């Protein structure tokens, strides 16, 4: 398949089959999001992983009552920052330095 064909294959899952997604797969998706390029290179968002059943139940009403919120094994929330701060701009640089120091 070509890249464009790959990108055309997507859909929103509306019903879950009850099989939990393996944590290894969730970690893979989170790592892909972390490595994905952004226009500023600063990743102006956080991805929040939620698998706690009680917390998902609290989220369901503000997610228009969608059953997949509680029926899924995990939900990923992409929370965009509303502004850049010095701390957010410098965080990727600090993390990179830490990794370099460990090698």
What ranges have pLDDT less than 50 throughout 5 or more consecutive residues?
none
Shape: globular
The overall average pLDDT, rounded, is 86
Helix content: 40-55%
Sheet with the most strands: spatial strand order: 1-2
Series of secondary-structure elements, N-terminal to C-terminal = HHEHHEH
Radius of gyration: 17 Å
Number of strands: 2
Largest sheet: 2 strands, antiparallel
Distance between the termini: 38 Å
In DSSP terms (H or I, runs of 4 or more residues), the helix count works out at 5
Structural class by sheet pairing and helices: alpha+beta
Strand content: 5-15%
Secondary-structure blueprint:
Elements: H1 3-8, H2 23-35, E1 45-50, H3 53-59, H4 67-71, E2 75-80, H5 86-102
Antiparallel strand pairs: 1-2
Question: Would you kindly provide a written description of the structure presented here, covering whatever features stand out?
Answer:
The protein is built from five helices and two strands, in the order ααβααβα. By secondary structure, it is of the alpha+beta class. It is globular, with a radius of gyration of 17 Å. The termini are far apart.
Features:
103 residues, two-stranded antiparallel ribbon, 5 helices, 47% helix
Report a brief summary of the structure.
By secondary structure, the chain is of the alpha+beta class.
